[in-house]
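task queued by scheduler; priority normal; single chain, no ligands, no partner chains; default sampling; output format set to structure tokens
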Amino acid sequence: MKFEFDYGKPFTPFQQLMGVLPDLMYEETSPIIDFYPRNFELDMNGKKQDWEAVVKIPFIDQKRLLKAMAARDVRLTPEERERNKSGVLSTEFVYDSEIDENYPSSFPGVFPELTRSHCRASPFNLPVLGGDIQLIFGLVEGVQLGISALAGFPSLDTLPHNGILDYHGVNVFQSESKNPSMVITIIGKDEVPKTSEIARNVLGQRTFHSWPYLQEGIVAAVSDDMFKYTLQQVGKSLRVVHMPHQDAVKWRRQADHVERHYSKRYGVIIGGVEVLLHIRPLKGLKHLDNGALVKDYEAPEKEIVQAYQTAVSQVTFEDERFLERAPPDLKVDFPVGERVLFLGDMHYGLAAQVSAINEEAQTLSVILAYFEEETEETFKFTKAVAHRPTGKWWPSPILCRRLGISALALSRITSTLLVQLNDGSKTNIGLSLKFESRGLKVLGYSKRNDRGWEFSEKTAQVLEAYKKAFPEVFKHLENRGGDLVKSRELCPTAEDPDAVIKGMKKWLKDEGLNDLESVSLFADQLEAETCQIIEKLADDILSKKTFQSIKKRRLDNVPRQTLLKPSQAIYRLQGQVFEPGHRVVMVQDPAAGGVPTGMRGVVVGLGMRTIDVIWDNGFMGGSTLQGKCSPYRGSTVPFSSCLNLTRPQFTVSERGGPKPVPQNVFRPQLGPRPAVPMQHYQPSVPGRQQTAITTPHILHKPKTVHSAQSTTVVGSNGHLKYSGVAKGVRPQPIQQQPVSHRDQLSNLLGGLRLGPGPVVNENGGAGHITQAQAQGNLPVVHSHPSAHQLLSTHPHIQGKTQNMNNKPGLSAAKGVPFPHRGAHNGVPAFAHGGAPNGAPRGRGGRGGAHRGRGRGRGNGGSSAAIQE
């Protein structure tokens, strides 16, 4: 099949505008009024909201449009006719070092001219198809797809899988789909390695999580339903160390959530999750003092969990943005003439230029340029912000007394208050000034401190007017404590409660309170009046500076880490702290419309990742910061783009001293440490009563939780196997049972089996012999040394243990040691016990079979036996 098209003629600017502007759109006599129907049909196509529908209006016939406009061309003025012509379609800009001139403004009086332009502009005609340029059908040669796709392009082929079309109830928009979905099943390995083997292979290694999008991270821990495996420093080497969970039920919930999320959110069946990888995602690259770039991973508190079967160990193409780089040569990293910022003690943040390189000493010589009064400028801005008028703020209890309402009523009306109308619809009549759970506030209206919420005088006046307009609603705000109330509950005496609620909504809109922007509790903004004071102060300081007042100073033997290049800012300036009124200097290279490098300004607003700055000079791309400053003087920039001059945080000694702000460096000896509980600490003991504990280094015996039974759904294309968790079935909670004092003591010892002679002959709890120890691949790590001391002093343990230091296989009665023996696959298991008064020898307890079985022989009787 062949298609041929005739080249058309581009519309002129006015022809494009007249297609969507009056008077041809509105006048009844317009020959093309049918292009713009007032009433039209909506094709919902299964959608719920009108804005999601397909609007069924006719396509515009360009011949009729141009004919209707041709009759109106005579109305154009000569100037408008000139503007209505098609000019040069494209312009090519080429850098030319020989050109150094000012480029005239394209909009004089609004846009400034470009100074010292090194660019040459010339007309450019875009290539057209035909001749040497032919249209290529399909993919261009060399395109990488599937498992070989470039970094950033997701592919399902990175894991073996199959898919069928079946009913699965995928939940995307808060409701499960009722139609068939393409359900993908990951094909797992026939034999899953043991958890200890997985831990040895992946701990401290990088992996790719969030399949199929494959984001890099490093494995900090591996866990199953019994243990968590981490790398820890043992002597001079790293070893895999396992520790039991304190809450096995929590681990099972976490594993089930991973499986359920993939299943119900993405339609991917990953199978039962028996092993979790604890991953610290890649944060970016970190710049070292020697100029090298190394990968930097997130802190432990930002650790994520990933099912082992969805992790990918390697990719075909690495992300070039995050490739580590060796230290470059000094002359390459800092060539002569390079413009940098100085991070020394005495001249922090000053502009400098490299003048010489000493390759033998690996140091540089730089020339600083500065004004003598720049240090005093910083204190002037800080003082102006510190003495600003902040207005009156009302704590919640005092505001309640002023308004004559309760604390509950104030809390509900200042947050989100949904009211259900008679037709079932819901509307919000709250001011939406605070969001406790999400940690949000509205600048100028609300804020939170350690004493609770406070509201501005402006908020108090709004509430007084709101209450005066709708007194009955405020009177009944305490009628119900839920988040959703009915209109009749707030307006019991009104003839039409819905009309009252709609009137409140209209009142909020008329007062401009419908679209107030909520920000983080950590965000802050200076008032417009203070911003004007800061801008005026900057103008006064700038007016006193002249070219002749610039001072220069040469510094020799400067180490490379004392200098900051603009390209290094994104790596080196992470984690800075700012406050309103802080003096900053722009470090990063300016992008299109960006702030020029070296320009100074003052912080007037804080966001989560950005700061609002009023700069000393205007620049192309600047803004008014929503009316807080003059045009082109303000902008919002990332934290890492500026250097804080008021509070230096990256000061480097001119002799190469260390940075005062340490950066978190990933070391693989992570994982849980034996916690030292506080006085009223209560550990979580699944399935049993919790016992208060004050003894340190106590571990807790986890309880095995059985997952939901597997279910098989027969689809049109075959069998689809997935567990009840994948279908959204949650495991049943464990019933609480009465616990004897002996069992409480067993819980107290964190899984160590205790009991008198007769009980010792019964099956014990889960032992501490792991899979790795059973195979003899890893050294045994004794994880509860404090148990010996506790046993020897506890009044309910009749035997006294002695001579047990570094001898976990011995027990004693009256100080006489008796060896205990036990084995699993040739690996010794350990038990401790004692028999007072020379009682006959008895059988020791047996460890549970989940991670290996341990046997011990003790001199029975009524003494205690401890199993590992």
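post-processing summary
- Residues 389-520 form one domain.
- The chain is about 20% helix and 25% strand.
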